[in-house]
Structure to design on (950 residues):
């Protein structure tokens, strides 16, 4: 296989459409006779529903229909459990999934009560004001510890103590490790993650075509195939009758993999009932309640060490806020539990989490998907241990790295994909070394920091390490087909939300088939173009779909060579594929274009040999035996204004190992964007709920997504440890940028402000200027 | 409640004749008083390249150029565009085959991922570079800070803008 495209910083195929305003997003779908939906949502977090009167709304001019839960009849049902709990002995899991429209009770602000369908969105929103709802407010369950009390108000009446799940996983014998430890450190940590806030909110357009007996749905989903399957099941249709298109999607980051959102249940049903196309586009206010988010965990963690800083064991007990429902099972807290172990040898581990129902929006994965919470605990424990044992922060990490000859490395607990948490490959020392070198660690500590401190400036450095489980199963597929015009079409079942699949997948095909990257036409996320697949999540698109693309392209290459060999009456070994043609090596003028071969492979008349398949095409699938574990280290030099606590990142470095790289330009973009979200999480973004479960900052003016002024220049370095679990050696990279930023900020800010000398620790995220002021003045 | 609804209905019934030039093409439409300029461009004129991200002026995705100045079309009514000239992302490239230098630089530097915020960024930076042809990085960051991008971390956009500025000066 020639490698002129794979690994090169190829410019993206999809950009021209996006740059000229010609790319189709869901809200761009316009259909004749379309009606527009608006949802009436609960404005309180917890209440019994006494009555909903929609008569006035129905009577308003321009209103086509108004529905409540009562109108849904037998169609009304709680949503499916997307991810069942992994088989961990002794676990408790209480499944309570979201409903399409609230009946009897509302459990979080923003839960939908009714839907209005009208001639325009403006009219639909007018009619929302006509609906009269009587609610009997109930106390809101907000605080995790209070929620667990036997006498607490219950989010779900039949779930005592609001216990959503209880899971314990152990490795080795922590009690024995603790007994022989030289040093034990215990702390309470709080890590809060926020709202993914893609710039495109969610949306859906549904069109029932009565003549074709087919439903078409355009949806901002990361999982079009699952959405198709679920819609067919709910509506009593066969899968063939439902086509789901995830067109260009304006950022996903996890919450768009969640299904079924209430709107995804109601809108297709109503489109079929009314026999009219319906559009619903979430507004930004709705996005803060109606789209899933991530939130907080409180960890009580303890680390047992030898005097020279070697980890003997870790014990961790944590509470996880799952919100009002738990349709995504245990993915987020399991990720926290597993990813805490990081790149380190932890011989004994005793981790127990309790997931708690609260009257807050639903928690499902958001970029990092709980990994951040675990990494924060581990990295902070190591920082504190380094301080107490008088070790260098980088050195304590290096001492505990899993050695490069220990892979595959089994952590002996179960991961989110139900398989043992096993790292396929890795080499962590060089990653850390490179990061230290790029940030200038030694020189900063020895020269720069003392010099700047002497000038009265508050500068500090941080270093944090992590691993990221990526590229999990089950599988993805791809169909590669040579077109008669010589171009190659490629279809895959995953959706795309900016990851550059139109280009990275085209690079793989281009190398196999000897065509230009721009001549590979990629279709993603249209269930009529590709039937099977799971979706874009867990940093798995490039790994799983990418390898399926490679397998399909390889088969097509073989078909091309076979047909061309027949055409030229020569051996396949005498042929080469390049520039869209197959030529006989050393015989000038003996060449045939791929387009001509594609025509030849589809004869109109005559006989073919038995067993001949038409066309130059192949559909192949790839399912990895397990996830590919990427790793990395981030380092940062920060300066803090001691009066205002505003923060200036002087230098930010990421060294990342995601195996073989398809396109370094796209990879750098993924890292930059992840870091930007990590910075938001660490210092700017916080969902602030009051005691009534009301979100106090539900706007982009108050929920502070970082701008170009907050995100620094990021230097990216790479090491390459290929994954042995897939032929291309790829590991995922989607979440790496976002994962270790919280502990990095805490460590660097502590250093900058000299907090260890004052016995102040930053054991919570997010931080902010205000929070730093509180934390540092309280203990003064 | 019913009183407020009646008043709202009366307001809604109020319409305005709007004559506006968008990307050099004159349009005449009758619009409701409350129709946002962003919705007018997207749905009435089907110029859907202008994207809507927040409808409260915070994200900048809906930015268009209004008589030469970058404005947020979600914070204006369509009626206010009467007699004015608007440029949207569809008007940036000189023709179907070629991109504007700003667009070309964005592609070269991988300045976009999902591309949803991109039209607003292009229009903001078009107006900025028209006024500031030789910006330094700090000026680019400042000018860009009114547009939120959740994918890129801005770095490649900033590189693209520096490259575009250099090319536009030549």
């Amino acid at each position: 296989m020639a490698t002129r495209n794979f690994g090169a910083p190829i410019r993206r195929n999809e950009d021209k459409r996006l740059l000229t305003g010609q790319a189709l997003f869901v809200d761009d779908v316009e259909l004749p006779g379309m009606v527009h939906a608006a949802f009436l949502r609960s404005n309180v977090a917890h209440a019994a529903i006494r009555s909903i009167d929609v008569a006035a709304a129905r009577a308003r001019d321009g209103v086509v229909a108004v529905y409540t839960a009562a109108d849904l009849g037998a169609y009304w049902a709680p949503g499916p459990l997307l991810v069942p709990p992994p088989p961990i002995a002794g676990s408790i899991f209480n499944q309570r999934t979201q409903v399409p429209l609230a009946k009897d009770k509302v459990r979080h602000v923003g839960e939908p009560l009714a839907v209005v369908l009208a001639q325009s969105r403006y009219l639909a929103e007018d009619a929302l004001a006509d609906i009269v709802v009587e609610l009997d407010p109930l106390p809101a369950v907000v605080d995790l510890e209070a929620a667990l009390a036997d006498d607490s108000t219950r989010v779900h009446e039949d779930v005592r103590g609001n216990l959503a799940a209880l899971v314990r996983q152990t490795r080795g014998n922590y009690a024995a490790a603790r007994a022989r430890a030289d040093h034990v450190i215990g702390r309470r940590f709080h890590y809060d993650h926020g709202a993914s806030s893609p710039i495109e909110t969610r949306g859906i357009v549904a069109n029932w075509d009565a003549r074709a007996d087919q439903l078409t749905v355009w949806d901002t989903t990361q999982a079009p195939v699952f959405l198709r399957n679920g819609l067919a099941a709910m509506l009593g249709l066969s899968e063939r009758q439902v086509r789901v298109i995830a067109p260009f999607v304006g950022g996903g980051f996890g919450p768009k993999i969640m299904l079924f959102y209430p709107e995804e249940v109601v809108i297709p049903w109503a489109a079929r009932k009314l026999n009219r196309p319906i559009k619903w586009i979430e507004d930004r206010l709705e996005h803060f309640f109606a789209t899933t988010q991530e939130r907080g965990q409180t960890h009580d963690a303890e680390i047992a060490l030898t005097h020279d800083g070697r980890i003997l064991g870790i014990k961790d007990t944590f509470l996880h806020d799952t919100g009002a429902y738990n349709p995504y099972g245990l993915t987020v807290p399991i990720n926290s539990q597993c990813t805490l172990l990081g790149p380190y040898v932890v011989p004994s581990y005793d981790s127990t989490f309790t997931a708690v129902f609260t009257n807050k929006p639903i928690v499902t994965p958001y970029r990092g998907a709980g990994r951040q919470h675990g990494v924060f605990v581990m990295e902070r424990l190591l920082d504190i241990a380094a301080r107490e044992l008088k070790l260098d922060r980088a050195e304590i990490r290096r001492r505990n790295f899993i050695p490069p000859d220990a892979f595959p490395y089994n952590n002996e607990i179960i991961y989110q994909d139900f398989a043992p948490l096993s790292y396929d490959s890795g080499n962590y020392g060089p990653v850390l070394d490179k990061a230290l070198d790029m940030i200038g660690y030694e020189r900063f500590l020895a020269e720069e920091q003392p010099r700047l401190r002497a000038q009265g400036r508050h500068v500090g450095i941080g270093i944090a390490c992590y691993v990221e489980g990526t590229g999990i199963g089950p599988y993805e597929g791809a169909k590669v087909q040579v077109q008669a015009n010589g171009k190659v079409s490629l279809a895959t079942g995953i959706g795309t939300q900016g990851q550059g699949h139109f280009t990275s997948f085209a690079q793989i095909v281009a190398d196999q088939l000897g065509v230009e990257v721009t001549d590979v036409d990629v279709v993603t996320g249209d269930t009529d173009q590709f039937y099977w697949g799971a979706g874009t999540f867990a940093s798995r698109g490039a790994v799983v779909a990418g390898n399926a693309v490679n397998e399909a392209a390889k088969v097509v290459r073989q078909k091309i060579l076979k047909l061309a060999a027949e055409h030229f009456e020569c051996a396949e070994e005498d042929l080469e594929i390049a520039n869209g043609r197959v030529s006989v090596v050393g015989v000038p003028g003996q060449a045939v274009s791929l387009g001509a071969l594609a025509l030849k492979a589809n004869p109109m008349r005559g006989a073919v040999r038995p067993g001949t398949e038409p066309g130059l095409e192949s559909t192949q699938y790839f399912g990895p035996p397990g996830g590919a574990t990427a790793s990395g280290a981030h380092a940062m030099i920060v300066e803090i204004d001691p009066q205002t606590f505003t923060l200036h990142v002087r230098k930010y470095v990421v060294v990342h190992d995601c195996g073989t790289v398809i396109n370094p330009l796209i990879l750098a973009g993924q890292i930059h964007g992840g870091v930007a979200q990590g910075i938001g999480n660490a210092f700017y973004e916080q969902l602030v709920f009051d005691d009534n479960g009301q979100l106090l900052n539900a706007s982009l003016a108050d929920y502070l997504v970082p701008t170009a002024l907050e995100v620094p220049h990021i230097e990216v370095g790479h090491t390459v440890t290929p994954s042995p679990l897939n032929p291309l050696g790829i590991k995922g990279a989607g979440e790496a940028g976002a994962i270790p930023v919280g502990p990095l900020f805490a460590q660097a800010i502590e250093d900058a402000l000299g907090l260890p000398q004052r016995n102040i620790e930053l054991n919570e995220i997010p931080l902010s200027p205000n929070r730093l002021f509180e934390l540092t003045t309280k203990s003064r | 409640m019913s009183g407020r609804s009646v008043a709202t209905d009366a307001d809604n019934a109020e319409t305005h004749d709007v004559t506006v030039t968008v990307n050099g093409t004159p349009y005449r439409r009758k619009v409701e008083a409350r129709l946002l300029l962003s919705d007018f461009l997207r749905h009435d004129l089907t110029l859907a390249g202008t994207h809507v991200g927040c409808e409260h002026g915070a994200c900048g995705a809906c930015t268009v150029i209004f008589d030469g100045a970058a404005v947020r079309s979600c914070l204006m009514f369509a009626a206010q565009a009467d007699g004015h000239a608007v440029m949207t992302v569809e008007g940036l490239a000189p023709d179907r085959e070629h991109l504007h230098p700003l667009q070309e630089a964005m592609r070269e530097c991988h300045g976009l991922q999902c591309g949803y915020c991109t039209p607003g960024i292009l229009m903001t930076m078009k107006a900025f570079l028209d006024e500031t042809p030789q910006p330094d990085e700090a000026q680019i960051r400042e000018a860009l800070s009114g547009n939120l991008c959740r994918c890129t971390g801005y770095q490649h956009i900033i590189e693209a803008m520096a490259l575009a500025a250099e090319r536009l000066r030549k």
